[in-house]
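hi got a favour to ask and not much time before my train. below you get a single protein, a line of residues and a line of whole numbers that encode the local backbone shape. could you go over both lines and see whether the tokens make sense for that sequence. a few lines back from you is plenty, here it is:
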Amino acid sequence: MAWSKAQLKAITTYNKNLLVAAAAGSGKTSVLVERIIQRLLSGNCSIDEILVVTFTNAAAAEMRERIALAIDAELKKNPQSSNLERQSVLLNTASISTMHSFCQTIIRQNFHLLDLDPKFRLANQQEMNLLKRDVLEAIFEEGYESKNAEFLSFVDAYADERSDEEMYGILLKLYEFSRSQPYPEHWIETLPENFVLSEAMTVDDTPWPRIIKEQLNLVFEECRVYCDELVQMAQELDCAFYLPVLQSDLDTIIQLQELLQADWETLRNGLYAVKFATLTAPRGTDVDLKTLFQKPRQQVKEKIKAIKEVYFMSDSMELVEDLRETAPLIQAICDMTVAFANGFAAAKRNKMVVDFSDLEHFALQILLDKESTPQQMKPSVTARNLQQKYVEVMVDEYQDTNGVQEAILSLVRKSSRPNLFVVGDVKQSIYRFRLADPELFLKKYREYPMAGSDFARIDLAQNFRSRAGILEAINYIFAQVMSEKAMELPYGAAEQLNPGPPYPEGEGTLDDSIEVDLIDRDETGTFSETEFAVSETQAAEEETEELKGFPLEARFITSRIQKLMEEKKQVFDKATKTYRPLEWRDIVILLRSVKGKANILLEILHANNIPAYAAVDSGYFEETEVRIMLALLNIIDNPRQDIPLASILYSPIIGLSPVMLAKIKLLQPNDDLFAALLLVNEPSTEIDREVKEKVMKFVLQLSSWRNLARCSSVPDLIWQLFRDTGYYDYVGGMPGGLLRQANLRVLYDRAREYETTNFRGLFRFLRFVDKMKDTGTDLAVARTLGESENVVRVMSIHKSKGLEFPVVIVADLGKKFNLQDSSDTLLVHRKYGLGPFVSKPDISLRYPTIARQAIACLMNRESKAEEMRVLYVALTRSREKLILVGSSTKLADRALNWCRNIDLTCPVLPTYTIAGAKTYLDWIGAALARHEDGKVLRDFAQTTKKRLNIVYENHSRWEIHIIPASDIQNQDVISSETEVLLAAVKAQQILPGSPQQKWVEQVLNWQYPDKTMQEVPAKLSVTEMKRRFEVMDTQALPLFKPKLIVTRPRFIQEQTQLTGAEYGTLMHGVMQHIDFCKDLSENGLKLQLESLVKKEMILPKQISLIDLAGVHKFFTSPLGQRMTVSTKVRRELPFSIMLQAKKFYPDILDERENIFVQGIIDVLFDEPDGMVLIDYKTDKNTQTEAVINKYKLQIDLYSEAAEKILKKDIKEKYLYLFHNGTVIPMD
């Protein structure tokens, strides 16, 4: 291979601490491998004397393979070389691994130096999450029981009304941050220092004002530019009447900029002294001219107002007092985090497990001398031995290391002579969320060139991946938006991408001009530039809005891919070194986040016959086959769960219809579904024989599975379920069968992993799955796609790192940056510590401290810097064609904002423009508006500014298209008749009539022949019928009153007086369960009531409410005596009967119409000559005539129903009034 000068220098430079800044596509891995090979071939170094640390296991394996191939090739040339044979043998045990694997090796070789069982194992993330939760719950339980004042202050400040989850999250977040530090406990212990302020200290003695002032300076600078432009515009348009006010505005902003050098209180006073004069114009001034000045001036006023409201509501003394007031709470949080860390460590030690963080810290503990301090780390004997062993320490992807990993590397490399070789690209550092620290790389990047002869930095800027036009375009964008002041690093000559050897000439190849497709979503809304913070609600609304707009992008991308394939373009094949036709596998669609959007994209791609695949990290638990198997596991654990049981009965495993499920449920309407299922095989049950056989087989099988679950592991149970149900084979025959079967295998594998932990059993496995769902830690759907599959790939930008594709479509560029980290309840920063709220629970008040505001500024700045690096990674994946797609509402307003700097000649955009971006489009649009090809944007924005050529030589070519949403909606990308109809419905178009149109109209226009039936209900209870026909003054009231709650919860009944209906239910319940065969004296009845309490039929507090005298009086009455000696007593007898409707509604024409009537008879007992009916009443009205009139209809209906159903005569009917113990005959 022909190496460039820079590459050759990186390969052959020795005896230096070397930083290789390798740009995207520069061949850094090849350089690192070649450096190792050259060392081995020269004979001055052995493979076991080199430590190579990679970012992934795949990278380590690839590196071993490359080295092995190179050694084998040299052995063929020189088969007698003993050195090469030795290197080939040593390669298998060489220290080429990830950092975690290297740490694990150190630990296993030196476990005796730690309080660690040598049989330890590396636990998976889900097991660690469960263990963390157990420890947290124990700590919080102890805190609540002990009523610790510090703990309770933490609860008062940060607990929500429903759970402790918010507080759990705070402790876990702080713990995770601490683990990226070499001395985590020391780091935590230093956090309260920023809040412990002496009486002499002022807010200016803290770091917070400086950080906020940096942010304010950006705002003031933007305001100054606005004011300066307004002054110039007034002069150019002969608006002298505006000049005094506008010049005053400009002077005010300049004064505020100067006040940034003063103390905080002076700046605050200066801000509150700002008074903007009224902008007046002579009568008759054109309205558009007024607006031209008023709109930007109003933006300046709003920005200044927002600054005052956000940062300067409190004076300096109040800010300091807020910090002091928060100090005890911060100390409590830190103490609890340390307690959690210790408890978690003990729990892991007891279970003999470690996590990835432990690997690093245990290794560091072994490598550190006991006399080491956080300020001075000294190598231990083990570390010094490793220093002697390794001639060179090599690190790949160095930009993604953290503080602990840096400490480990510093202890194993030689201190006597330089032997460190690190390679990476800080512009591709996109793992800050994993606590990677790009500052480590940047520090060396800045210092090494000037650090002396033992240090060197080599820049690999030549890109061997992409066409020259793509590299020119990337350089053009990032030269303008990537500045050190705004985004942590510059993009100068050393950082720019230089093209490697040109692509060969060919016919029908892809044009390397960059395509930018901007979709105007045609929605109204006000474009705002003055957002200082985004609430969670706003973020959720914005995400919903983005999801609404994304289908437009998906449809456009679909049509664009179809067009690319129709054009039969040629792409260069790096393997064969020739051109070949473009294939689906050559195209990738990159998204910042695939959540909620990949499925939309896949659906539209598949609908248009484009094979596509997306690797998503969620959605597993929503897959149908997974939900069914989890439902089956749930009912094996506990069959009395209606929803999982109904799911299985309806699923293909059993295959019952909804109607049959309803019939089964009606067998036991007052109990659970499983109880009804057990009644199916009763001889009296009227259900199809086939269904009975299915149910019987299932019940027996379920019993067998439950027995199996008690004596076998969860994975064995799952596999047995696959066999017994045949469901695994069934889903294999469905569309997407391979993927569905893979999902079921993942469930089996997950259960097998779970069984390797210290947790066991089906119940705990199901709780484990539930916790994963509750915490949002979903799994990825199984992968069934090989790398060579000919499909369009949809992936996140993070997943694409390290990959390359001939055609790259970067979509969703209008998505707003996710800055939610700066809105968390407690902010955590690696360098500046904690940013809390001031909490005053006694008055339900919470507001941010100045520390929180400052850290929020820093976090937003760092998040945007990371977003810029993510964009860099996305754009550098393309080899031959790059297409950028984004959508936005009010696109014209945004475009006008992008054109604000087209009259500047400086290559780098103003810092406030870069830092103020809210989307990738804001950076790309602001840069392209200054390009010659950006005329489309400038015309669309209707800007009045004139473009000036920036001082930057660039030959990039751009194709910019503005696409109205309506154009995409009208595109013919619909492939089926059904989709055509759906598209017409969405577009609110009139659909053509179908052959069934007349029948539909006839059905929809049908009316009852007897219109009087429209007011007659199909079903009535006896109580409702009684109320309907009562002869009272309430006849004008509505027949059916809506009931929001039928029965009040018991806990409410316990705390309040029973309603009349509840008291009646209580008395009826007592009369239903009194045992006639036992003592019916008052004392005997008391004992029976106590028995009912034990059986949980009534509540203890309800005994005192029961009319015991009334109950006793009934049983001692002649009627009660007759009932107790009856041979057949029916209590609380439910019935249903069809009665002639005309009997109750005389206006009905058709005498055949019936009403379905339901009721419950309190008591019906037999005597030799007929039946006796009794109805209990708890009414306080005991006037005999009134009671008879009120309940006559009800008793008559009961009597008629009982006689028709039981085919026996009722000889007597009675009401029993508990209130006075009266028996009223109803004959």
In short: Residues 316-351 form the longest helix (36 residues). Residues 524-537, 972-976, 1031-1046 have pLDDT under 50 and may be disordered.
